[in-house]
Amino acid sequence: MPLRLDPSFRAQLADSDHPFVGMWVCSGSPLLAEVAAGSGLDWLLIDMEHSANTLESVLTQLQAVAAYPITPLVRVPFNDAVAIKQVLDLGAQNLIVPMVSSADEARAAVAATRYPPEGVRGVGSALARSARWNRVDRYLQESAQHVSLTVQIETAAGVEAAADIAAVDGVDAVFVGPSDLSASMGLLGQQTHPDVVAAVESVFAAVHAAGKPVGVNAFDPSAADAYLAAGADFVAVGADVALLARASEALAARFLPRSDASGRPSY
Prior knowledge:
Elements: H1 9-15, E1 20-25, H2 30-37, E2 43-47, H3 55-65, E3 71-75, H4 81-89, E4 94-97, H5 103-113, H6 139-146, E5 148-153, H7 156-160, H8 162-166, E6 173-176, H9 178-184, H10 194-209, E7 214-217, H11 221-229, E8 234-239, H12 240-255, E9 258-259, E10 265-266
Parallel strand pairs: 1-2, 1-8, 2-3, 3-4, 4-5, 5-6, 6-7, 7-8
Antiparallel strand pairs: 9-10
Helix pairs in contact: 2-3, 4-5
């Protein structure tokens, strides 16, 4: 009997009655991915750009979260046709491609997700989890329906080109990264600087004008609330490693002795 694949991130966003709220999984751990998948959040981003994730670890995380009502996305390490092909073949339906700063770069990302003649994706469906080893009926002919592509704007050049990027056919959504964007603007580490916020919101306007959904990374709850109020369609509000770091620090602050003004330990 032919198998069905889950609805894409594109379809999930279109059907949602609220902005999607999600988190990152950067640990490379399928156990932590499964813990996060059961959280009740809308989406989960498995990151290959700034983590130790490999093809094998991404595969096990996709398998671990498959049983949960959450939409997984995978961020590939860079805009490369081979990297995109391999992650798609693992069965990732929803990709984020980082550092897209022009319409040409967006078109290259789209081409990497499409089979010829529309694109350059290599054909290996009989060998790959993407088509469940040819158990998904008409996967080759209908693969574009199963794959959702989000491109990430993270530079000042990308902000300037946001309208052109969003207009590219095959770009399903745009995700803004304020960390790299702030660095590109000469404001390293100042993700909530007014100029950075204004740049992010200008991307919102350009992408919405093109009729596409737009999201943003915002681990600061106040920033996330502000971006949601400004019209973000999806927001990433935390990461597994960051949550563990802050929670373990809180335990240390709560339970370890600290010296008072006299130099004596206090609890």
